[in-house]
Fold this protein.
Amino acid sequence: MPWGLHTKDTPGKGRVLVVDDEKNIRDLVRMTLTKAGYDVVEAEDGGKAAEMLRKDDNPLMVDVITCDIRMPKVNGVEAIAFFRKEFPSVPVVVITGFPETDMAVSLFKQGVVDYVAKPIQAEKLLAVVAKAMEQRIALKG
Amino acid sequence: MGGSSKIRIVVVGAGTVGSSLLELLKSERGVEVVGITDIDPQAPGFRLAQLFGIPHGTDTRKLLAQHRPDLIINATNDPAMETDLQLHKPEHAQVLGQMASRLLGGLAQHERELREHLIQTEKMATIGTLVAGISHEINNPLYIMMGFSEHVRDETRDEGIRKYADAILQAGRRIANIVRDLNIFAQQPRSETLDEVDINQRLAEAVKMARRSTIQDDVSVVAQYGSVAPIRGRPDEILQLFLNLVTNAVQAMEGRGTLTLTTQSSDGYIFATVKDTGPGIPRHHLARIFDPFFTTKEPGKGTGLGLHIVREIVRGYGGEVTVDSTLGEGAVFTVKLPADSGSPASTK
């Protein structure tokens, strides 16, 4: 596995942290992403994700985060606020079962790349993650 | 008339004005409608009176003598009625003249519309919350169903299993469409951000999208776009509106025919028409075609919300949508939007 900072010159397409409380959904997102050439790491809630990232300042070298909104413990909105504050160079993609306009507006204001509604269409997910990965590479310079 | 006792009222005239007044007054404390009369025994107000258990009849003089009202409301158009009532009223009674009665009837009508609007708004807000919650709960497992069946379909070499997996996927798509339509139907107040919307561009985009989702492509498209100024609105909403009309038209033609689209400006309005050469719509369906959950499509093909959504969107802009159809010759839907639509309503 190509560990380390992902740039346009490194092999593979980069690493995505998938945050969702439902294992089946994490599995599906992972299957779609790995098939397209991404590395995937998973967290089952916002707290776990924060723990994984914070430990030694993003040691997993996560390039992009996909995050559900409705989750127990630390929910998506809180988690995303944390990601954006602590790791502003890691783009966030929202995955939601129900896109609410007000929430979408506030998430976009926080700099979220885009959202993907469930039931997820693989092409849409891949397009949005690719867009996020481009941002990641641009941000890292 | 005694201090705390109710004002006894007789309404003369059971047409539109009389009916509105009857409806308003019967729920008003401090008054009692003791009768309603009309020379026409079929007057619409009589059905209401029957419903409310209020005495009614065609003989005004008799009813006045029997029920001895304090106030007589002259809701007729009859110029001779005023004099007649003055002659035959109980001595103490007052007569409210035709003009005042009409004014009061108008206010009653207005009050009723406000109340209905309020009830409708509350109802939609409740439905909106409910649908949002249900959508979320459905979309999660639905994605699991659809996602895994898609993987099964793509991974297996067994033709039978591939077919079954695909059937699950298709069924999932149907559910997803229903949930999506329900959401639009029960939409919460939307964001207030408005953009310039190019009607011609939106219509063309809708045709492109509809083409992508239809398999047979023996439909020729004739587009006659006039020069129409952009309106202020929500681009997605306008796209949705045209997409629903175009999809219906294409489905009606079952993949074969001519889809004609026109736009034009006239008298401060923008007119857009979507015309198909399908079988047409039976007359008895025309009146109900915009009702929610009304559908003639076979199970799984439609939710019966498409045209209802169209009407709701168009109304939000202060416009209207109409349909015209001749059996065997197809149907034409006309959307009329104010050219300078100000701002569309934020709630439904």
